[in-house]
Amino acid sequence: MNTLKTGQFYGTTNQILQLDGLTITDTEYTHPVVDWHYHENAYFTFLLQGNVMEGNKKEVYHCSAGDLLFHNWQDAHYNRKPKGFTRGFHIELNQDWFDRYDLKNNLIEGSINIQQPVIKLMMYRIFAATKQDGIAVAAIDSQLIELLSVASGSTFVKTKDRPQWVKLLEQLLHEEPNSYLFSLSELAHRIGVHPIHLSRAFSIYFGCNLGDYLRQIKLQKALGLLANDNNTLIAIAAECGFADQSHFIRSFKLNQRMTPLAFRKLMKRC
What we know:
Blueprint: E1 2-4, E2 12-18, E3 22-28, E4 33-39, E5 42-49, E6 51-56, E7 60-64, E8 68-71, E9 77-80, E10 87-93, H1 95-100, E11 111-114, H2 117-130, H3 137-151, H4 164-175, H5 184-191, H6 195-206, H7 210-226, H8 233-239, H9 245-256, H10 260-267
Parallel strand pairs: 1-4
Antiparallel strand pairs: 2-3, 3-10, 4-9, 5-8, 5-10, 6-7, 6-9, 8-11
Pfam family, one: HTH_18
InterPro entries: AraC_XylS_family_regulators, Homeodomain-like_sf, HTH-like, HTH_AraC, HTH_AraC-typ_CS
Keywords: Activator, DNA-binding, Transcription, Transcription regulation
């Protein structure tokens, strides 16, 4: 089985940054088939454009733009890429980085497909930071520490301790294209709980209120669509459920600290 060293990925790496314990790469995937392999460091893979299928010993993930995977070190997996342009953003964390902040390197165990939209929005902010002049390493470290805290479940109830209705709700919100249009009573009916219980308990299991979570999902979807220049801001706003383009731009600036067009320009920096 192949072992990939720090900064190595299957494809054409257009950017590589070494930031004191972090190795950050921006890679175009060019191999249609990648056999079983593992990496020597724990790392995140954030799909910026295109599609890829990834399998490990437990699961298979069909990923598209905006999907985020985490692999602990030496977790074996394989990949299949369909035709078309596919681009991934990777952050490798070596042991020195974990030691510097007194973090355990097994905060996240195994290979997982991270669903929380707040984490994906954090990753988009980290990506943007690596494309700007004068990279703020301390800010990237801070965001990664927060990201790991949320992803590991230390800020709210861990996945394994959540009741079944929470899992059903998460699936519904992420897989139904127009879930933001559902009323509270309809959501509650679909998952089999009382609306008041859903409203009161939501933040316990998701780390924020329902309204904020739905906004995060809409922004996450919008960020994935921005990579394609053919998608106008008006079209993105409509597809993601924003009232209009102005509302989309305001929400985007509040979360990503820049305009959608400024982010689109950063996406073109390899």
